[in-house]
Design brief:
Number of helices: 11
Shape: globular
Strand content: 25-35%
Structural class: alpha/beta
Number of strands: 22
Largest sheet: 11 strands, mixed
Helix content: 25-40%
């Protein structure tokens, strides 16, 4: 016998289905994720805190859950919506079923609803506040349920970093020879990101979101990294001020996702809320410096407001900046590059454990920026096969150039390296 569940959107739309996961009531912002795989990484991505995630893939749970694929210490989604939960678990690494894990971690969900219709509604109306009422709670008064959904705060204006950040600092040691420490501000960082940074030869010092400039200085970092995370970047003034101080001291900086939005605001640019966001592992992005199109993993509901053509001056006096990457579906800003400071960022997830892996070269670009003393070697300066993330690497033996030129040089070097690797693979297949 299946227990009932109801999903209620703030516009009054109701979807009846079956209880999935923990029984009870939950509230959050309803968003959809388009990945066909990697549901465990989605559930444990801290960037989904406060959101009810709708999976567009029709069947979820086939491979169960395991201890290796978690991206953080817990499941962070506020609720979970699937079309059809898999009735069996079929994977040699599985240690349990997804349904049992949702119950264990207290995640209220709903299944057996038309997720196609729900996704179309979110696309048409935008991400909305929502509530799931399951088990005995599904029998509640419809008007009272709708009122409860509408009473919750909007995602706009929320600062959620404190909910997901590490409670205390810790270190992930470098893989192989260490190039020095980097400071990672944990705004909701994923474990794969820390591993990718460690693979580049850095001792990764993970600091809470409350870290000050003095806390960062105490690490004596050769670089600073701002992670992904949930919430509205406009509600993170304190963290933005810390980032401005980092930029003023010319410490090499790399930010992803939420870190990209914070870099934009630190430079004096604005951010805005997207209608329904970008969430999935199939988002095409153009790297404007190389002309390459990358298929990327994304999870964000806010974006930087900036002209995508030409160079602009930072409104707060931090030099020139340009949009480095553009989303091809809707022309959203997907990356920023500072021309007078050693800093860059992207809106997507280059670590992407569940794939795709087109953008992992960005970690090498950050390494080159650091090893160049804030200046990256130009293309053709030398290569070595010592990069664990890509299987290749580049030395920084060339004479230094201005930061605006050398970061572009690193970009070109990455493209040349990828082209050379592709040519070699084609030759092997002939």
């Amino acid at each position: 016998m299946f227990e009932p569940a109801i999903l209620v959107l703030e516009d009054g739309t109701r979807y009846r289905g079956r209880a999935y996961g923990k029984r009870g009531t939950t509230f959050g912002e309803a968003v959809f994720a388009t990945g066909m795989t990697g549901y465990q990484e989605t559930l444990t991505d801290p960037s989904y805190a406060g959101q009810i995630v709708v999976q567009t893939a029709p069947q979820i749970g086939n491979t169960g859950v395991n201890q290796e694929d978690n991206e953080s210490r817990a499941i962070w989604v506020a609720g979970y919506v699937v079309r059809e939960p898999s009735r069996i678990v079929s994977n040699w690494r599985a240690t349990g079923s997804l349904a049992d894990e949702l119950v264990r971690q207290g995640v209220v969900g709903i299944s057996h609803i038309d997720t196609r219709a729900l996704t179309r509604r979110i696309r048409d109306r935008g991400a909305m506040r929502a509530g799931i009422f399951s088990g005995a709670d599904a029998a509640g008064d419809p008007d009272a349920q709708l009122a409860a959904v509408r009473a919750q705060p909007s995602m706009a204006g929320q600062n959620l970093s404190a909910r997901v950040t590490t409670p205390e600092a810790y270190v992930v040691p470098a893989v192989g020879e260490s190039h020095g420490p980097i400071a990672v501000i944990d705004l909701g960082v994923k474990r794969a990101t820390l591993h990718r940074l460690a693979e580049q030869g850095f001792d990764v010092h993970v600091l809470p979101a409350t870290a000050t400039l003095d806390d960062i200085r105490a690490v004596d970092p050769v670089g600073v990294f701002f992670s992904n995370g949930p919430g509205d970047p406009a509600a993170s003034d304190r963290v933005i001020e810390v980032l401005r101080q980092v930029l003023a001291e010319r410490i090499p900086f790399f930010g992803i996702c939420f870190g990209n939005q914070l870099l934009g605001r630190a430079l004096g640019l604005d951010t805005y809320k997207l209608p329904f966001g970008h969430r999935g592992i199939n988002q095409p992005v153009l790297d404007r410096a190389t002309g390459r199109v990358e298929i990327t993993a994304q999870n964000h509901g806010f974006a930087v407001q900036a002209t995508t053509e030409g160079v602009v001056d930072s409104p707060v006096g931090l030099g020139r900046v340009e949009v480095s990457h553009i989303g091809l579906n809707d022309q959203v800003v997907e990356g920023l590059r500072c021309l007078d400071l050693p800093a860059f960022s992207v809106q997507y997830h280059p670590e992407a454990t569940a794939g795709p892996h087109d953008s992992r070269y960005l970690f090498r670009r950050f390494r080159d920026l650091i090893l160049g003393g804030g200046e990256v070697a130009a293309a053709g300066s030398g290569e070595s096969a010592n990069d664990p993330a890509t299987g290749t690497g580049a030395s920084s033996a060339a004479a230094p150039e201005p930061a605006a030129t050398t970061l572009a040089g690193a970009t070109a070097a990455s493209a040349a390296e990828t082209a050379a690797t592709s040519a070699g693979l084609e030759g092997d297949q002939k």
